[in-house]
Amino acid sequence: MLRARKILRDTFGYGTFREGQEELVQAQLEGRDVLGIMPTGAGKSVCYQVPSLLMDGITLVISPLLSLMKDQVMNLKGAGVPAAFLNSSLNARQMELALSRAGEGWYRIIYVSPERLMTQAFRDMVLRQKISMVAVDEAHCVSHWGHEFRPDYLKIRDFLMWLPQRPVVSAFTATATREVRDDIVRILGLRDPVLVTTGFDRENLFFEVLEPVSPELALLQILRHFPEESGIVYCLSRAAVEEVAEYLKGQGIRAMPYHAGLELRDRLRAQDAFQMDECRVIVATNAFGMGIDKSNVRFVIHYNMPLSLEAYYQEAGRAGRDGGDAVCVVLFQRSDIKTARWLVSHASDMKEIPLSEEEREQAQNRDQERVYRMADYCEADTCYRREILRYFGDRYRRKCTGCALCVGTRFPEVEERYGARVNPYRKKVPPLPEEKPIRLTEMQEQEKRVQPKDMKEVPLWRRSGPGSLYSELLALRKKLAMESGQMPYNICSDVTLWRIEGALPQDVDELEDIQGLGVVKTERYGQQIVDTVRAWLDRHPEYRPEEKPPTKLDQEIGKMYLQGTPMRLMLEKAGSPKHLARSLRKLELISSQHARVIRGLAPDHNEDPWREEELHRLEELNDQGMSVSEMARELGRTPSSLLSLLHGK
After folding, report:
1. N or C: which end of the chain has fewer CB within 10 A?
2. Hey, which bits of 29-81 come out as E strands?
3. In what helix (H) or strand (E) does residue 327 lie, and over which residues does it extend?
4. Considering only 64-68, 210-214, 550-554, which range has the smallest mean pLDDT?
5. Which domain holds residue 568?
6. Is 536 exposed, middle or buried (0-12, 13-18, 19+ CB in 10 A)?
7. Residues 136 and 220 in one domain
8. CA dihedral 66, 70, 76, 78 (to 10 degrees)
9. Predicted structure pTM score
10. pLDDT in tens, 388-425
């Protein structure tokens, strides 16, 4: 698992695996099938992307989501991973080229839609390559009892049985009851799968239900809490989408509509504008968002009651995927219950589901029951979070600090000004106070005290407004995204920007301590990030952190280095490669490149430490086209240590 952790850090920019990820990765590397049930934003993609880079062959990722495929492939390419997608968004020439390159072994990860599995051209390509793993995303779509059954998913098992050699099969979903979970295992033919359920709770999400007399005015007031942030407003009908989008645009809010009735080019334009942070609010039906990888969504508002708790939690879960705080609000009207019942009884896609009359009747009854369970949630007299988790068979054992029934409303002015009917069981406690700006020096002290273990524990500092470092980092991120053809959040998340703002890195190698970038992105964007921080500090010297002199330990390590002490002994003295690199950089004994080698690769402990002149000579020999063995003889080093330096293996 050491190599897996290295890929996680260097390629994807995460310091450690999150809950459940390591167990799933380990199982796949051992050749086991897996089923991962993890909430939206828990990092399901990492669970199949990391092992795919360690397996000998291609990983196929089956997904129904064109937007997710494009987004994930763009993100992987930005991290230096060769990847592609095959779906109906490609024209004939693009598809031919992608299949040709796939057959020649250009890619490590290929995203493919389920209907593409049965085409002859795709199968011809598959026969030319070794398929090491098939990962099924949104695996609940395979089940008749799931809320988003897709007939094309039934083709997956036939495809797996057709393959000359059965690969590892992995399935992932965010929402699965026991019935759906059992269906996934049975229909996909998973063999004794390792099951990991990390729990459905999303601690960074705040849940609230409001029943305003005027939903339009209530929505407008809520959006004023988020003057620059991105968010989604869901409506049940296309007509409501158009009306709400026009209303918001008339109020000066950058909003765009999205629903299945729009022309494809209009849907793509709206989606791209939202992902590029050019459109602040997307107003949509449930046709939008499934699989959208945009991490900096700060709010999801349901203008109408959703049709089920499964649908609600999946849609609400698109908020706060970067680990930052986000709010999820339902604007509930009693008439929504009648509308929802009519919609599920007239669902056009029901006709496409291959069910007997008895099964069809059972499905109708189940969908009606889901509507009532959703209504129960909206009228709950206990914690909203517990209502959601109970529905999925999960339990919440801590004190809730993230729902209006437990801590009070986030939007008191909606009730006061627009006559919202308040749930009588809501606790009468003051609303949460707005966070006051924190001086950067105070942020750094707070960081030292907290020592966060993962994203959820990171204090989300923010000094927004014109002239703040955060605003300048946002502008830089957008510029880098435009230049590289990526989405801003694929450069890095809001949380990563908050971490940069708090740490104030003034050297590129300091960025490697900040979770969320990774080696490839640090090398690609690091200097521009550091230059932005330095320029801001030049204009605001009062926030410049004081440079700390080398400690006694730093000086002892520096003395050992100058005396040619073996790496093994220096590492023992420093405690870790990271601390060794930091000490030597502080004393200006090594370059940032050398620090990166020591910090990330930890060369062979039995060898003497690499010197600057050796590194320069290695670069020269490599540029001359020498083989690894020839360079090793020339430098008097082992081939394995050269490979570590050259390729990070």
Report:
1. C
2. 34-37, 58-62
3. strand 326-331
4. 64-68
5. 552-647
6. buried
7. no
8. -170
9. 0.69
10. 988 887 777 678 889 999 888 888 877 666 656 666 55
